[in-house]
């Protein structure tokens, strides 16, 4: 609806002017008073219109500010959404690449020619892969085994030399590494841990296959290094655990049980 106040104010102004003319012609004071009243009404309407216009301008300005703030908030939300989608996409690509590598791994993962200094992933004393690589390799093997419905076995190995009582000096790591290379397959993952133990990942190997492999290792050491005592803890996916961390824990518990025998021993994780 249009505002009628400008028309009315104009009409009143014209009326006041007309009254002024009559006053000038006739000299009636009452007409002069009437003209003053009409002029005042016209002025009041004009002022009211200006105030209304100012109020409308303020409301429009406030609405524009609110719209601007909403636009900024929406833009920020869109940027966050885009950032989250990009992060999810990046993680998805990394996961797909890791799974592909896990599925394609078939070459040996023993680095025997690393030299005395080793590399970031190898143990300088033995040339075997180190502890940092072991967990990554095991997780990759389990991922591949889960897709192809194959078993995976883990062996946690400790060899000591001429131990007496509570003293259990670890065997020379190079000797154990050589025995592992001589008895395990090229596709098996061999690692030397910081605490002197050795961990092996046996791909596509059941519990009985893992026991047979560790028994070959024991016989090799007994024949070539009779002073060594070998303890082994074995755990298998999916028979004993479904994740890398659980599998390592179960094999470690089996190793502790093997050490209680005070002679060479291979222990398998119990079903819980």
Structure, described:
It contains six helices and five strands. The two termini are 82 Å apart. It is an alpha+beta fold. Helices cover 59% and strands 12% of the residues. Residues 102-118 have low confidence and may be disordered.
Strand order of the largest sheet: 2-3-1-4-5
How does CATH name the architecture of the largest domain? 2-Layer Sandwich
Identify low-pLDDT runs: 102-118
Radius of gyration: 45 Å
Sum this structure up briefly.
The chain is 59% helix and 12% strand. It is α+β, with helices and mostly antiparallel strands and 272 residues long.
Present the secondary structure layout.
Layout: H1 5-26, H2 29-104, H3 131-148, E1 152-161, H4 173-183, E2 189-192, E3 198-203, H5 207-224, E4 228-237, H6 244-259, E5 265-268
Parallel strand pairs: 4-5
Antiparallel strand pairs: 1-3, 1-4, 2-3
Features:
272 residues; alpha+beta; 2 domains
